[in-house]
Amino acid sequence: MTRWIASLPMYNVTPQHAALWRSLLTDCLAVVARSFDLGDITIENAPEGELMLHWRREDLLLSQTCGFPYRMLGLANEVRLIATPIFDAPGCEGPRYRSVLVVSAQAWELGAKTLEACRGLRAACNGADSHSGMNAFRHAVAPLARDSRFFASVLWTGSHAATLRALASGAADVGAIDCVTFALLHDSHPERFGGLQTIGMTACAPGLPLIASRVLGESQADVLRDALDTALAADPERANKLRLRGFVRLTGEAYAEIEAFAGSAAHQGYTELR
């Protein structure tokens, strides 16, 4: 019997959100199962720190990745693009999203009310393979950098939530947060944002794509796309809590914008967030 795995790891910002995404995925897979027999499907918690291996699995029926590994780290050549979500969050435009530029209370009080005013401060970033936390941030900083440097230091935090904690604790001064993550965390834990200030947003780019193994046939992929729409419509309250409004079918080439962000920064001599 064929065996598949599925996961939706990218916006599990709280246990409550993780449960909602798992519920949506369960409903989606139930619709797929009624259409054709795929064998056993296991919903997994994608392993932290090993997501690239997870996304490259031949038995991956559905997951979600970031646009940076999809376009810049070779995933586009190894997986099937299924859909891109549409979110209702400040900074989103259809299937496109931005990063929110956030400063700590201390930085704000010292006058860091624009990105340019953050020169020489301490940045925080979730990871070097993140479009929203690094690539979009780097793209925004590039025109302001001097001799390939802008910040005093960069703290690599491992997640957007950890970046916000670093800002709240005073361990860092400025960071870029995926606007969907920012909205979901603010919905669930507004108290964590006390003192933090937003000073702008990055340029927009295509949102985080849903992907599958290329072993999955195109006709099966179409069923999966329809099943996502059906699962979304099945529970409007769940969709509202996830700020999820729909799915669109972008081409892989749409994600060339992610590479263009990196190319623009490199052209200005700013190849690393520093």
Topology:
Layout: E1 3-6, H1 15-35, E2 40-43, H2 51-55, E3 60-64, H3 67-72, E4 79-87, E5 96-97, E6 99-103, H4 105-109, E7 122-125, H5 131-141, E8 153-156, H6 160-169, E9 174-178, H7 179-188, E10 197-201, E11 205-206, E12 210-213, H8 218-234, H9 236-242, E13 244-248, H10 256-267
Helix pairs in contact: 1-8, 5-10
Name some characteristics of this structure.
D-Maltodextrin-Binding Protein, domain 2, 10 helices, 274 residues, five-stranded mixed sheet, alpha/beta, 38% helix
Q: Distance between termini? A: 50 Å
Helix content: 25-40%
Structural class computed from helices and strand pairing: alpha/beta
Over all CA atoms, what is the radius of gyration?
19 Å
Shape: globular
CATH superfamily of the largest domain: Bordetella uptake gene, domain 1
User: Could you spell the SSE succession in H and E letters?
Assistant: EHEHEHEEEHEHEHEHEEEHHEH
| Count of individual beta strands | 13
Q: What would the average pLDDT be, to the nearest integer? A: 96
Strand content: 15-25%
CATH top level label of the largest domain: Alpha Beta
